[in-house]
């Protein structure tokens, strides 16, 4: 393992994983997929809510805890707001690979056994 873990205190912390954070830009681009979260986000923005999560790069985001809070304060259906977050996470987890950002191509070796030969 390289580096000092004290330099990266959130590294490996389940609650700090990027998958739990939705950037404002991402939400804007995917508002049709998360309509309840988006509606609560807009109301929170209108009411000057400022208790957003912060990415490591300093940009504001929506964590699951923030979604709970804005769902409670700015939505008639907090459960639907949270379900939008969970569904978004499920979709990210269902992708086998992010082809756009993949830096390596994976190929099986020529002598890799096939199911029919097992």
C-alpha geometry: elongated
Through-space gap between termini? 37 Å
Largest beta-sheet details: 3 strands, antiparallel
Mean of the pLDDT scores? 77
Question: Helical amount among residues, as a percent range?
Answer: 25-40%
Q: Layout of SSEs?
A:
Layout: E1 22-23, H1 24-29, H2 35-46, E2 53-54, E3 60-62, H3 64-74, H4 78-94
Antiparallel strand pairs: 1-3, 2-3
Could you characterize the architecture of this molecule?
This protein has about 120 residues and is mainly α. It has helices spanning about 25-30, 35-45, 65-75, 80-95, and strands at about 20-25, 55, 60. A three-stranded antiparallel beta sheet has the order 1-3-2. Residues about 1-5 and about 10-15 have low confidence and may be disordered.
Give a quick summary of the entry:
With 118 residues, the protein is mainly alpha-helical.
What brief labels describe this structure?
118 residues, mainly alpha, three-stranded antiparallel β-sheet, 4 helices, 3 strands, 6% strand
């Amino acid at each position: 393992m390289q580096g000092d873990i004290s330099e990266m205190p959130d590294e490996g912390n389940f609650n700090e994983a990027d998958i739990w954070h939705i950037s404002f830009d991402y939400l804007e681009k995917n508002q049709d997929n998360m309509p309840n979260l988006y509606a609560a986000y807009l109301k929170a923005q209108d009411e000057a809510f400022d208790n957003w999560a912060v990415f490591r790069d300093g940009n504001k985001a929506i964590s699951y805890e923030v979604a709970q809070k804005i769902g409670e304060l700015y939505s008639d259906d907090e459960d639907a707001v949270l379900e939008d977050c969970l569904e978004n996470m499920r979709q990210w987890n269902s992708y086998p690979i992010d082809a756009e950002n993949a830096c390596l191509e994976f190929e099986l070796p020529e002598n890799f056994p096939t199911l029919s030969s097992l």
